[in-house]
Specification:
four-stranded antiparallel sheet, 15 strands, Immunoglobulin-like, mainly beta, about 300 residues, about 40% strand, eight-stranded mixed sheet
């Protein structure tokens, strides 16, 4: 008799597939546009150890990668070059450091154009994506000074951007500190993330706002104030930052946000054709304000933090 059967052994590494991972942001006003192009990897052993090897996720040499600026019926090609940066810190990710291979261009971003990304790997599996550019917008309130001392709430207001969807706001309060018996003035700051808002659509022109409680400013500041005898501090300006993300980036952030459910399956989202990742646009705008006089006086008179009125 002849016995026959089927093997139950599975070879996880039999058929290699080249999977590209791409991350890129088109941001008006920046001097350099960076595109991260790498590849997925799989092999026997500890994947975390493979991550520390540049050859695991880097393509050898330089790929044919370009941006195509589309404006009306006109198209222009921007060839991307490569650069290895050495400022990546340990702990930024599980991957190798301090080197990081990036594709880049110093061509100025045209906010009225659409950009297409085209990556040729020479294996009939070209990678592509496209994005519209978030156009300029501005903070409309406060107008002159920022007020935290009022018993009511205050607001940060702006008008939504064309091609913008998700907005995250924060403020940074700067102050100076002079310790006793030390001639050097220290420059410090408090960063306060104010929250997120979404516009109804991406047409622009929508009035948006985030409401903040002035008392929370003093609570947050007090949590980082060291009780130092005879210290002197001076209040500085407040910078308000609003960062806007295009629709695709907004969706990518939402899909990859932590889930509160242990049974919810996280869906995949990518706008990279023949790959994974995100190619989109964002824009950060800022406006600087002096503290309202009453807010500065409250720092000086209501708290024992060593603040002195600026003259």
């Amino acid at each position: 008799m002849v016995l026959s059967g089927c093997s139950t052994d599975v070879d996880n590494y039999a058929n290699y597939k080249d999977i590209s991972i791409v991350y890129g942001m088109i941001e008006p006003g920046t001097d350099t546009t960076w595109i991260k192009i790498s590849r997925a990897y799989l092999g026997p052993g500890n994947a975390l150890m493979f991550a520390k090897e540049p050859d695991s996720s880097n393509y050898p040499g330089k790929l044919d990668a370009k941006l195509i600026k589309v404006k009306g019926s006109n198209e222009s090609i921007i060839q991307l070059d490569t650069l290895t940066r050495t400022d990546k810190l340990a702990g930024d990710s599980i991957f190798y450091f301090p080197q990081q291979k990036l594709y880049y261009t110093t061509s100025a971003v045209d906010p009225t154009a659409e950009y297409r990304l085209a990556i040729s790997k020479g294996n009939n599996a070209d990678v592509s994506s496209q994005t519209r550019v978030v156009q300029n917008f501005g903070v409309t309130f406060p107008t002159n000074r920022i007020n935290f001392h009022s018993t009511t709430t205050t607001a940060i207001r702006w008008v939504s951007a064309v091609n913008g969807k998700r907005y995250e706001a924060k403020l940074v309060f700067y102050y100076k500190e002079l310790l006793p018996d030390n001639p050097d003035t220290l420059f410090k700051n408090l960063t306060w993330n104010l929250g997120m808002q979404r516009s109804i659509n991406t047409n622009g022109g929508e009035n948006m706002e985030i409401i903040i409680n002035g008392e929370e400013f003093y609570t947050r500041l007090g949590s980082q104030m060291e009780n130092i005898l005879n210290v002197k501090r001076w209040a500085g300006p407040v910078d308000v930052f609003v960062t806007c993300a295009a629709d695709e980036l907004s969706t990518y952030i939402d899909v990859n946000a932590p889930s509160n459910s242990i049974i919810q399956e996280i869906p995949e989202y990518t706008n990279i054709e023949n790959g994974y990742g995100i190619f989109s646009s964002r824009l950060t705008i800022s406006r600087r304000y002096p503290l309202a006089v009453g807010s500065e006086l409250k720092l000086v008179e209501d708290f024992n933090w060593g603040f002195i009125v600026n003259r």
